[in-house]
Specification:
The protein is of the alpha/beta class. The chain contains 15 helices and 15 strands. It folds into two domains: 122 residues, Urease, subunit C, domain 1; 290 residues, Metal-dependent hydrolases (TIM Barrel), CATH 3.20.20. α12 packs across α13. The structure holds zinc ion.
Length: 446
């Protein structure tokens, strides 16, 4: 795993050093995090120092001499992490703003309006977006006529024969999709009966994505669908199978196919009768959670007769996959009921630990694993040459996962985020919501 990472990072280090020298004058002052605990995206460094110059991390280690004018942050009792990555969301509205305030500096969208995504990507490439998370997007997903993804009230193109797979995928890439998201889910585990791609179509779409050097990630529901998707060549699964627990043999099968899995436990919990409402009583979360997020944490999905999905199966599968060294990715599936942009990722981390991952494994799911799986070589790790997308928290999330919520500051490309303005905006939104829900003053009777 470490070998793989080093190989992948080499080109980005070279590029970043070049970039750093080009960009240093236009960026914020240098920052030295002194004697801080570091989670580097894979491992824990109990105490070290990290220097940020321009938009990159330039040095890690003891005895770093800060450049003149550098801000020095005493790291005692604090932990520095790479900015978090939400590997499954559906981006719209203020999603990317909400995300970064919770320390999520990159969001991997799994189905949204491609025009909106392209506009955001343009700003991102122009070097804007310092107050919003970066976006990578699947654009429009690939599904069968009437299949999952077609129920949201706006028309989308659908796929109904394997021969049109390449042109379908190419149309998505022309629209700007970074990777291809495919729905392979007949709805049975949710008590539904939905059209879905057949195996030949599934394989044809995956092959078509690979032909263009793009990842193909598959939304699945059942264990059988998960097996089919892996067999067809999927790079990753979106959702842990939730009907039957995947055992060690299943996990070995996934590992042997070099696939990753984004279990999305928080949305499976809220879809199987559980709740993520505990988030709203956490004061570290509630102050930064919009009225929409607060409301959404309390929502859950309707259940249907004949449903076999259960949270215990998803948890057990996640644990088995981790034991088999399958890369696990943290994803919220926000804004589905029970989830939220940004703050919701901290719930997903808690649930990954609840499923049996160690806190460092859960943190890797939201940093190094996600970056490596999606070939985002410049982020997800704290390394010399990596982007300075950083999250500083008080306490030790490598032993207590909930400490990721004690956010002290967030940096994107070396710029410290102004969280006070956001806090005021959220407070105002809550006040407006309260006013709107207050009973109208009673009119005196005439
Ligand atoms: Zn989703």
């Amino acid at each position: 795993m470490i070998l793989r990472r080093v190989t992948k990072l080499l080109p980005s280090v070279a590029i970043s050093v070049l970039f750093f020298f080009c960009a240093r004058d236009t960026f914020a002052q240098a920052v030295l995090f002194q004697d801080v605990r570091v989670f580097d995206g894979l491992n824990v460094l109990p105490s070290t120092s990290v220097l940020v110059e321009g938009e990159r991390i330039t040095k890690i280690g003891h005895g770093i001499t800060p450049p003149p004018g550098a801000e020095i942050i005493d790291g005692t009792g604090k932990t520095l992490l790479p900015g978090l990555i939400d590997a499954h969301a559906h981006v719209f509205g203020v999603a990317l703003e909400d995300a970064i305030e919770a320390g999520v500096t990159t969001v991997l969208d799994m189905f949204t309006d491609p025009n909106m995504a392209a506009a955001v990507r343009k700003q991102q490439e122009d070097g804007k977006m310092l107050d919003r998370a970066d976006l990578y997007s699947a654009g429009i997903l690939v599904t069968a006529p009437g299949g999952h993804g077609t129920e949201y009230g706006f028309p989308i193109p659908t796929l109904s024969d394997p021969d049109s797979a390449q042109s379908f995928v190419d149309a998505r890439l022309t629209e700007g999709s970074d990777y291809i998201k495919i729905v392979y889910d007949n709805g049975h585990i949710w008590g539904l009966n939905l059209p879905t791609l057949n195996k030949a179509e599934l394989k044809a779409v995956i092959d078509a994505a690979h032909k263009r050097d793009r990842l193909a990630v598959i939304h699945i529901g059942s264990l059988e669908e998960a097996r089919d998707a892996i067999e067809a060549g999927a790079d990753g699964l979106m959702h842990a199978p939730a009907d039957i627990a995947g055992d060690a043999a299943f996990a070995k099968f996934v590992r042997e196919h070099h696939a990753f899995v984004c279990p999305t436990l928080s949305v499976i919990l809220s879809a199987t009768g559980g709740s993520n409402a505990s988030m709203i009583s956490d004061t570290n979360i509630s102050a930064y959670a919009s009225p929409f997020a607060i409301k959404n944490f309390q929502r859950s999905f309707p259940t249907h007769p004949g449903e076999t999905a259960n949270f215990a199966a998803a948890q057990a599968t996640t644990k088995a996959l981790q034991l088999a060294h399958v890369p696990i990715l943290a994803g919220t599936d926000a804004p589905n009921p029970g989830t939220a942009f940004g703050v919701g990722l901290h719930r997903e981390l808690e649930l990954l630990v609840g499923a049996g991952l160690t806190p460092p494994h859960a943190l890797a799911a939201a940093t190094g694993n996600a970056a490596d799986a999606f070939h985002l070589h410049d982020r997800g790790h704290i390394c010399a040459g990596c982007r300075a997308d950083l999250l500083l928290v008080s306490g030790d999330p490598t032993t207590d996962i909930k400490a990721t919520r004690n956010i002290l500051a967030v940096w994107k490309r070396g710029h410290k985020l102004d969280r006070t303005a956001y806090l005021a905006k959220i407070a105002q939104e809550h006040e407006n919501t309260l006013k709107a829900s207050a009973p109208a003053p009673t009119q005196p009777k005439e």
